[in-house]
UniProtKB/TrEMBL annotation, chain A:
Keyword flag Magnesium: no
EC number: 2.7.13.3
PANTHER family hit by this protein: SENSOR HISTIDINE KINASE, TWO-COMPONENT SENSOR PPRA
GO molecular function terms noted in the UniProt entry: phosphorelay sensor kinase activity
Residues in PAC domain copies: 251-306
Reactions listed under catalytic activity: ATP + protein L-histidine = ADP + protein N-phospho-L-histidine
Signal sequence coordinates: none
Keyword tags: Phosphoprotein
NCBIfam families: sensory_box
Histidine kinase domain residues: 319-542
Name of the protein: histidine kinase
TrEMBL record, chain B:
UniProt GO BP: phosphorelay signal transduction system
Keyword Cell division: no
Transmembrane parts of this sequence: none
Keyword field: Phosphoprotein
PROSITE patterns: RESPONSE_REGULATORY
Protein name: Response regulatory domain-containing protein
Annotated Pfam families: Response_reg
Length: 684, 121
């Protein structure tokens, strides 16, 4: 048995007696006067058993204190006394031995108490262990619960994911079996479409994109797939794109719209469609989208509406110009009369002069409108644009400040165009003056570059002008530039950024009108702060006919017209009219054989039927009417062009004239401009 | 000082032109259309006729042509407001070819008109 810590507190007589009896227990004895030391020792050590002589003074109090666990630990107690203390029955681990104690009983009691004590300790340990096990069990249980919850969540998620995957694969399988085509076939099919097509999943990610879409976005397929709008467009465009996606998803029906998007820094006008994809087995929210680049169409529409606006204004202006000028004349004449009526009144003079000035400005305005709407006369001739530029250069140089430099670059040998020199001069002056105005604050460089340019049939420009050879003139400045928002409006009539007294806003619309009539084109590009560039295209013509430089095809007989200019047989019995018509036609470059007598005219034609490119005849003549003359001439030469003209009520209509073989019938008084145009059209 | 015949359908222009030319010392007679004007011209008293191109009943061109026959010595100045319904420029040119000594677009500079009258009467 291991050493049990047993303390004894007794008088010397008992100590000697008990030491022998309890020798096996190795008791440490304290003397009675050592009570204080004993109590001090109890603070640091824990005896298993304390044997206490109750006869000692203070022993009962000490027993009480030990029982009450005054010192952290309660030892077992063996009390020795003559009488059994009354409290002993209540106290656990406490024994009593009567004085004088028999040594057997005394040891037995002590050993029993030690055993009880030891068992109690073991029990305590067991209890403690049990408690510990129990608490570990609780933790484990909790842990287990949490793990179990996590697993449940994961299982649920996995299950869902699995379901989704199964769904997706079902969809794929479904599609595959439905169409019995593989993905490559679909890809090829979509890539063959000229229209951009894509598919987005419910989260807005691209899951499919054809070549045209990639081309439009300037991205490879793998730079599109799996991404959302935000990764592809700039923020504002992406937001709009997703908005319309949502709209299509919400309403469950196709959305179509026109929208401008910036892609790689270029603004595109697009026609967009978004179609919610509804298929059995496919979750909702998938969108098929298509995009068609309509930038060119938009530009054409804008140009068309611009031309239409100009034409409408021209027609309107032309319609009112006559009345307007009459009224204006009446106003101006009356103002003059007022001045004459009160020559001494400076105030009247001043006021009428002001009114007159306004009247003259109005007159100029009407004249300008008539110019751009082609209501005034045009003289087309073959000319070299370099000559126009040279002429204009002198005038521009004289009229703009010296801090603006002007340079001309002629990058072609000749720049022949068929044009009205006055109008082209006006175009060049107008653009040069605008350029000078844009540089008036800080000075700068004005360049005029002339070159030839071939517009190929498939080219972008071919949308606006006929393919073929052109002369291109670029007039550029490095002035303040035109803000982007007003750029589309610069050709509008009356649009101006200049103060009222500096410009009417007709200049560029006149230029536009002139080029339109010359079958040309004007384009403008501009960057604020950097400058503006106007590019003009005019159809280029080969060197003038009849000057020996044209390659003539050997076996073809030169036509009469190429030899001498077009020859016209003019027939009118009215001498004055005959002479006037002849003069006008000669002035237009025709060779005219004028004949007063229709019978004589028929004789001349009979003699040399191939000499005349055209017969122009009046209807109402003595001897032979125009109609009869026409019939006779076309009998001789069935393909001979004849144009008839007549007064209003002479019983001749167009159907009759055409039946007789005439190409056209005109009414008197003749509109010579129209007539000349018709003649040219016929002969060319 | 000349004896002038004006054919002009726009009354406002007629009156103002009459006053203007009279204040310059000329004698002025008015007609509101070409046929009326031709009838007046038949008297032979006029030195010069100022004829508008667009007039009702008989237009300026027809009138000029008629006068060239009936009054070959009568000088003619053609005037017009211009306009787009027909190609007006050509009409004035036509008038000139028919024998009008000069053509003016309205509004006409009074000085120019007066000096043209002076040079031809």
């Amino acid at each position: 048995m291991s050493r049990q810590l047993v303390w004894g507190l007794a008088g010397q007589k008992h100590q000697d007696q008990w030491r022998g009896t309890l020798s096996v227990l190795e008791v440490d004895f304290w003397a009675t006067d050592q009570e204080r030391v004993f109590k001090e020792a109890l603070k640091n050590q824990s005896p298993r058993l304390v044997i206490l002589d109750l006869d000692l003074p203070g022993a009962v109090v000490l027993a009480q204190q030990l029982h009450e666990k005054r010192w952290r630990h309660r030892p077992a107690l063996l009390l020795i006394g003559e009488n059994e203390p009354p409290f002993i029955a209540e106290w656990p681990q406490t024994g009593w031995a009567q004085e004088p104690v028999s040594s057997t009983h005394f040891l037995g009691q002590a050993q029993l108490l030690l055993t009880i004590c030891s068992q109690e300790t073991q029990l305590e340990q067991l209890r403690h262990d049990l408690a510990e096990v129990k608490s570990q069990g609780d933790w484990a249980k909790k842990n287990l619960e949490s793990i179990s919850q996590r697993i449940e969540i994961q299982v649920a998620e996995r299950t869902r994911e699995l379901f989704r995957k199964i769904e997706e694969s079902n969809v794929k399988v479904g599609q595959g079996t439905q169409h019995f085509v593989d993905e490559r076939f679909l890809e090829k099919l979509l890539d063959a479409l000229p229209i951009a097509v894509y598919l987005k999943d419910p989260a807005g990610r691209y899951v499919l994109s054809n070549q045209a879409y990639g081309h439009l976005l300037g991205r490879d397929r793998d730079q599109i797939l799996g991404r959302r709008s935000l990764a592809i467009f700039d923020a504002e465009d992406a937001e709009r794109d997703e908005d319309t996606d949502q709209r299509a998803r919400r309403h469950g029906e196709q959305v179509q719209l026109e929208e401008s998007l910036t892609l790689n820094g270029t603004r595109y006008d697009l026609y967009l469609g978004k179609i919610p994809l509804q298929m059995t087995g496919l979750e909702s929210g998938y969108l098929i989208g298509f995009a068609l680049d309509i930038s060119n169409r938009k530009k054409l529409e804008e140009r068309l509406s611009q031309s239409q606006k100009l034409e409408a204004l021209g027609t309107m202006a032309g319609g009112i110009a006559h009345d307007f000028n009459n009224l204006l004349y009446a106003i101006l004449l009356n103002l003059e009369l007022i001045k004459k009526a009160a020559p001494q009144d400076p105030k009247v003079l001043r006021l009428t002069e002001r009114a007159e000035e306004a009247g003259h400005r109005a007159k100029g305005l009407i004249r300008q409108i008539l110019t751009f709407s082609a209501q005034s006369e045009q003289h087309f001739e073959v000319l070299d644009l370099r000559d126009i530029l040279d002429d204009a250069f002198g005038l521009i140089r004289a009229s703009i400040p010296a801090q603006i430099a002007i340079e001309r670059f002629y990058l072609c040998e000749e720049a022949l165009v068929k044009a009205d020199p006055t109008q082209l001069h006006q175009v060049v002056m107008n653009l040069a003056n605008n350029a000078a105005y844009a540089m008036s604050k800080s000075g700068g460089l004005l360049t005029m570059t002339l070159e030839t340019h071939l517009v190929a049939p498939g080219e972008h420009l071919a949308l606006q002008i006929r393919p073929g050879a052109y002369v291109r003139l670029v007039i550029a400045d490095n002035g303040e530039g035109i803000p982007e928002e007003i750029l589309p409006r610069i050709f509008d009539p009356f649009f101006t950024t200049k103060p009222a007294e500096e410009g009417s806003g007709l200049g560029l619309s006149v230029v536009h009108g002139v080029l339109h009539r010359h079958r040309g084109l004007i384009l403008c590009s501009s960057t604020v702060g950097k400058g503006t560039e106007f590019t003009i295209y005019l159809p280029r013509v080969e060197k003038a006919l009849g000057k020996g430089t044209v390659n003539q095809i050997g076996f073809e007989k030169p036509k009469v017209s190429e030899r001498k200019g077009h020859r016209i047989l003019l027939v009118d019995d009215e001498d004055l009219v005959l002479q006037a018509q002849k003069e006008l036609l000669v002035a237009e470059g025709f060779e005219v054989d004028a004949c007063k007598n229709p019978t004589e005219a028929l004789g001349r034609f009979r003699k040399a039927p191939l000499d005349y490119d055209l017969v122009l005849t009046d209807q109402n003549m003595p001897g032979l009417t125009g109609l009869e003359l026409t019939r006779s001439i076309t009998e001789i030469e069935p393909n001979q062009p004849v144009i008839l003209y007549s007064g209003f009520s002479q019983g001749l209509n167009e159907a009759k004239a055409l039946a007789a073989g005439a190409m056209a019938l005109y009414s008197k008084p003749l509109n010579m401009g129209e007539l000349v145009m018709k003649i040219r059209a016929t002969l060319d | 000082m000349a004896n002038l015949l004006i054919m002009e359908d726009e009354v406002l222009v007629c009156r103002a032109l009459k006053d203007s030319l009279e204040s310059a010392g000329h004698q002025v007679t008015l007609a509101l259309d070409g046929s009326d004007g031709s009838r007046l011209a038949a008297s032979g008293q006029f030195d010069l006729a100022i004829i508008d191109i667009f007039m009702p009943i008989q237009d300026g061109i027809a009138t000029i042509m008629e006068l060239k026959k009936s009054q070959p010595s009568l000088k003619v100045i053609a005037i017009s407001g211009g306009g787009a319904l027909v190609n007006e420029y050509d009409y004035l040119e036509y008038a000139e070819a028919m024998g009008a000594i000069q053509c003016f677009y309205k509004p006409i500079d009074t000085e120019e008109l007066l000096s043209c009258i002076k040079a031809n009467t």
